[in-house]
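Can you please make up a whole protein chain along with its backbone structure tokens because I've never seen that pairing?
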Amino acid sequence: MAMPGDDAGSRAEPLLAAARGWLRDALELARVRLALLGVEASEHALALGTSLALLLAAAVLLSAALVSLLVLVTVLLWESQRVLALALSCGTLLGAGAAAAWVGLRRLRAVSWFEASRAELARDVERLRGGPRA
């Protein structure tokens, strides 16, 4: 003779198995997405480190060259136009600094961080909402 609780238990088993499957799939999806995020983070860090090292070297070398050029112009014009030579030197350094700051800010704003991860997550959300399968 079947007990009333046995019928409820047999119906709960497939539901529990389905819930476990969904949870397993969700955890696997999260693991894959985190792995992708980690790969992207390491790529961004490597590219950023390389760019910063090259920019630092360029800044040091160009600064030394600019200072040398300004000293040369100042020495050449010292006897006749010393105030003009110093004003040109100052204006050149200010202009170069402002241009470097402007270019640096534009580049920082142009970076799209973790673009592939965001696209994958958007596709995941679309699939979960019942959208097209890819």
In short: Residues 9-128 form one domain. DSSP finds two helices and no strands in the chain. The radius of gyration is 32 Å. Residues 62 and 120 are 42 Å apart (CA to CA).
